[in-house]
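Homework help board

Subject: predicted structure for assignment chain

Our instructor gave us this sequence and asked us to write out the predicted structure in token form, then describe one feature. I got the tokens but I'm not sure how to describe them. Can anyone check?
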Amino acid sequence: MSLELDIAKLSRLRQEFNLLKTDYDGLVAAFGRKHSDLTDALDDRRNEIAMLESQIRAQAVKAFEETGNKVPAHGVKINMKDRVMYPDDKAFEWCRERGVGLKFDRAAFERTAKANKDSMPEWCVVEKRPAALISNL
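My token output:
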């Protein structure tokens, strides 16, 4: 195929996609209007689940801190996660001095800190923090 034919095909496919997407979006909106009680119930349950999971995680971490038990209840497990604490301005300067980038990449900096704990400056602290994982019961 030639470049011109491929461009024409791409244009046609994009137009078809946009028509299909418009139809799909209309059906989704109609479903939402028709079944708003169902979508509201789903949203309510999603919010209730998120709040209860947060509460359970906090209770599990508290139980772990009091007892040291990494399985404080059936279906809940405590993992120790690295938490990196540092002043942003110093971390940015540290990265710039090493040619890591022109802008501060928080995720990359924290990966480096976790992998090289002993070689990081004193203002960068990596500590283990308990995090509760809830299984699918």
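Reply (TA_rk): Your tokens look well-formed. For the description, you could write something like this. The two ends are 54 Å apart (CA to CA). That's the kind of observation they're looking for.
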